[in-house]
């Protein structure tokens, strides 16, 4: 249970965080297994995450000295967003919450951070996706301000993590202004 007196910070992850990032990914995958009908994350490529860390695209929400959740971003996501990728956007991927800190609406904090971050980088949208038609996540992300754009069938998934192969994804978008 999160202590409300702990200082909350949203910071860049560092290479020293990589083991904790992968621990949170494993815990998220275990949670996905427990929630029937949810697509389960594969084991992600460590070199992919190391590259994101090196490029300053892995982030964390800290509560005191503990990582409450992590996520990755990119400014380019053509294989998932197709022609919409031409729009200037920040794309959020792989939000994974530490089970000790679930139930505190961290996505709302990430969304507020992402809107500010997108503004600073002259982007017009914050976007994210989830594999499949996960009604719980659709409700959660729309409650956080995203518009659900519907389902898209991915056709070119070479180089994407395994859960995107032969997948249909739910797409979400949030204008930066507004």
UniProtKB/TrEMBL annotation:
InterPro entries attached to this UniProt entry: Acyl_CoA_acyltransferase (IPR016181), GNAT_dom (IPR000182)
Annotated ranges, domain N-acetyltransferase: 8-175
Lineage: Bacteria, Pseudomonadati, Bacteroidota, Cytophagia, Cytophagales
Organism whose genome encodes this protein: Hymenobacter ginsengisoli
Pfam families hit by this protein: Acetyltransf_1
Domain of life: Bacteria
Name the UniProt record assigns to this protein: GNAT family N-acetyltransferase
